[in-house]
Every structure is written in C-alpha cells, then in structure tokens.
Amino acid sequence: MDSLVVWSGVMIACIVVEILTVSLVSVWFVIGAFAALIACLLNVSVPIQVAIFLVVSVICAIVARPMAVKSLKGNIIHTNNDALIGSHALVIKRIDADHMGEVRIKNQIWSASSLHNLTLEEGEYGEVVAIEGAHLVVKKEGN
C-alpha cells in the first residue's frame, strides 16, 4: 500500500508542476505515474512499477509531446513589419553593393539593401528576406 501513496503523490506533484509551468514536461510523468498506480493496484512488484512508470513516461514524451507542442503553438501570425518578410517588393531606386536603394511594398516606400550585395535594377522585383533597423534586405526573385 505504500507504493499506492507514492504513485498518487507523484501524480499530484506532477499535476501541480504542470499547472504552474505549462511546459508539457511533467504531464507525461502524470501518465506514467497513473500507469504505475494501476500496476500497484494489480499487485505488481515495485521494481516493475518503476519500470512501467519510466517506460510509459518516456514513450509519451517522445511520441505525444511534439504533437502537443505543435497543437498548442498554433499558427504564428507575423505582426507589424515582420509581416513584410517573404513579401515581394518592386525596386523603385537601383540597389547595388555601394548604395542602398528603395523598394515599394504594400504602398509604402522603404530603403533597401540587397542580400549578398547583388544589384537589383529599377523595375525588378525582389523578395524581402529580413529587416535590419529601418531598411529592408531583399534578394532577387528566383535566387
């Protein structure tokens, strides 16, 4: 009966830790402790209970955690200027290795430099790959 108290305590402690941290780490130990608790009720030896606890916890963490993290994370929606990354921009002032140019994107004009110091001519389109300070970094489309 002592192991019944131990596994119940482990379950409760792990539940409390998970509620406080929401880290998806201790929840798998809750499942493992529950499996060990069932083994205890079936009069399985303590070493086997510990093995069940460890095996079930590890399997749950390996199999279910990535799915749970992905589900909780959801789709990240870029806000403000980060939303420009990946967008297409029209070069309205030549960009080369020595000079910053300008691009128009979503009806706004931005200063821009090019990725790898490639030249983008006026009228070409580029893709925004980063924002550095107050200017965009663009690359030639197709590169």
UniProtKB/TrEMBL annotation:
- Indicate whether Nuclease appears among the record's keywords: no
Q: What is this protein called?
A: NfeD family protein
Q: Which GO terms describe its cellular component?
A: plasma membrane
Is Transmembrane helix given among the entry's keywords?
Answer: yes
Positions of transmembrane segments: 12-38, 44-64
Listed A to Z, the keywords are: Membrane, Transmembrane, Transmembrane helix
Localization terms from the record: Membrane
Q: Which domain of life is it from?
A: Bacteria
Give the way it sits in the membrane.
Multi-pass membrane protein
List, alphabetically, the InterPro entries matched: Membrane_assoc_protease (IPR052165), NA-bd_OB-fold (IPR012340), NfeD-like_C (IPR002810)
Q: Which organism is it from?
A: Catenibacterium mitsuokai
Task: Quote the Pfam families the UniProt record gives.
Answer: NfeD (PF01957)
Do you know which Gene3D superfamilies this protein is assigned to? Nucleic acid-binding proteins
Q: Where is the NfeD-like C-terminal domain?
A: 82-140
